[in-house]
Write a structure and sequence with these properties.
heterodimer, A: alpha+beta, Nuclear Transport Factor 2, Chain: A, 7-stranded mixed sheet, 6 helices, 7 strands, 22% strand, B: 241 residues, alpha+beta, 6-stranded mixed sheet
Chain lengths: 281, 241
Amino acid sequence: MHLSSVRAELVEARSRPSTGSGQVALVAALALALAAAPASAQTAEERLDELEARITRLEDLNAIERLQKTYGYFVDKGQWTQLSELFTDDATLEIGGKGLFLGKGRVLEYMQTAFGPDGSKPGLLANHMQFQPIPDVSADGTTGWVRSRAYVMSNAGWGLPLYENAYEKGEDGIWRISRLSGPFTMYTSWEGWGKNALNNTWPDKFDPPPDLPPTTVYLTYPAYYIVPFHYPNPVTGEAFVPDKGEVGAYHRPPGTAEQAESLKVGRLADGTQPIAEPPKD
Amino acid sequence: MSAFRMALGAALALSATVVPLCGMAQSTDSRLADYRERVDRLEDKDAIENLQAYFGYYFDKGLWDETADLFSAGGSFEYGQRGVYIGQERIRRALLLFGPEGLGKGYLNNHMMLQPIITVAPDGRTAMGRWQGMVQLAEPGANGVWGVGIYENEFVKERGVWKIAKLHFYVTALGEYDAGFMRGAQMMEGPSALFPPDRAPSEVYRAYPAAYIPPFSFDHPVTGQPLKDIPQPADDVVGRP
């Protein structure tokens, strides 16, 4: 009897009520093939390994979501030190059009310089309510991604960041944020987006300066930017690949004549548009 | 031990591999026990997330009986500065302070439940959860109100069913719909004179423009440090330095 067929038989035997001749044959086979015993053991182990991998994946997806939600709670009330501790040492942070900050230390410096020292401030409301997460984990279980969003409810008005973040599971088994990318969709005053739309942020308008320029250039509402998806369409399995004309800023949604016209105006080679002064009107 | 395993063991007693295989049989059981426990905790977390969502959907529509039924017999309910109501029957009546049964024309009582962070105790019998609560309110004859706050709740599993043991909604901002928070901030309701609570508010604080931080029940997900003692901003009305 071949080794692998012993293995298959053991698996089968263990998964059904064990009476009858199959069992006798199995015992006989095992008696003949001493080497089969550890191999058979491995097969049961393999099934358990697979079960463990599936449970671990569910736990990992939860851990990644938990990190992102915790990030949101820390933003709400200005826990910048605790927020920076969510990141890997070599993490990157990019919010709106402000450019890239490199490393956990710079994440903390950016937050404390741009938004003040740790702690909540009287008169300031800046809730970044986190929801709609789509988490994923790599096959080897050490890298994760989330697409999610925040609805910003602040004393000054409303905002809509989107997140496409990356996470890493350290050798200590703990997940951390390795890339936080929060491009803006829309920001407005209390008048609402029907009357007022704030331009995207940009690197030279605040302290501290970023380590690198923005990874892409786009405008917020009423312009239109599709943040690339880290996952394929879940039904077709096809990746959404925007053509160059669809990357970057739009004046109008794709498919409209106004949008087609905007593709010809002031665009860079990669299809994005340079950041300009906010519209005068 | 099944007959099959005994037969298998007898066959293997002849071979030198008997020790590792018997060891395997034991470790299979312990692995299965471990996985069952991990799946239990995942299911507990989902059940609690859903329980809070059920609460929100019932509370939104003034279905006070359905809402009160989600609490354990000795459960408690605390909303903003209204004080603490203890026990299912007290909660059932206290909910009428939020509007008539089934609400009615002109009412909006939306309490959206976002951003849950749920921590199930290792024994699977109790749990804690934090939610971000986005609020949209309206009453007949009054303008709409935006609100937001934090739920820090406790749950208990009784005969396999999760129930709310303690619901505490820390309202942190209320603002008039048109004017917004800066020009139209509203104060929280205090304890009712008509149906007074069983206990005074467990935490005295003001909503916006004060900047109270509802205490975190969960530990930092990376450092593991407790987040309970994050310093509160000064508040001269409450008398906090």
